[in-house]
Amino acid sequence: MGTCCACMHCDxxxxxxxxxxDCTVPLREHLVQIDASGERTxxxxxxxxxxxxxxxxxxxxxxxxxxxxxxxxxIAVVDATHALVGVVHEAVFIPAREGPIRSASEDxxxxxxxxxxxxxxxxxxxxxxxxxxxHLREATVVDDARVPLGVFRDxxxxxxxxxxxxxAPPPVPSLIEEEKGT
Length: 182
Known about the structure:
25% of the residues lie in helices and 20% in strands. By secondary structure, the chain is α/β, with parallel strands linked by helices. The strands form two sheets. The chain has a five-stranded mixed sheet with strand order 1-2-3-4-5, with helices on one face. It has a three-stranded mixed sheet with strand order 6-7-8. α2 links the parallel β3 (52-54) and β4 (74-78). α3 (124-134) packs antiparallel against α4. The model is unreliable at 1-6 and 26-33 (pLDDT under 50).
């Protein structure tokens, strides 16, 4: 890409093995005590890993190299305004039994799939529901301009909910429950 999205989460811009922008949204531990159900915590607050974005003209060879070097399962594809236009998943590189074999020099624009984009303000619980209904394990989190902020994985959301539940204070028994016990 060569230019940063100018968000506050930018970590670095790399030029090789393929141009990319690396961003991280920090985890805010204090939210665990506030929202034990994950219904009010915005998904952007628990992103433990930022996103890597590539241009649609990046070759499949470069995209695969970026996936491998960053131990990723997918890469966000953004347009000239840095808005999310698609995703290249690792499955693109697995040869299909039927159909055309992709050339390593082919642009990712021909191999990308549409992206499930989750807005940064969506709650963790709702994001988990979205992933489950789409039968996905991860999705790209975007801001109002559809600029990718990071990748939300189901395992990260589930860990948040479990940690929040385990650290929540025990429920206070109600007056009705106390009367039943006596």
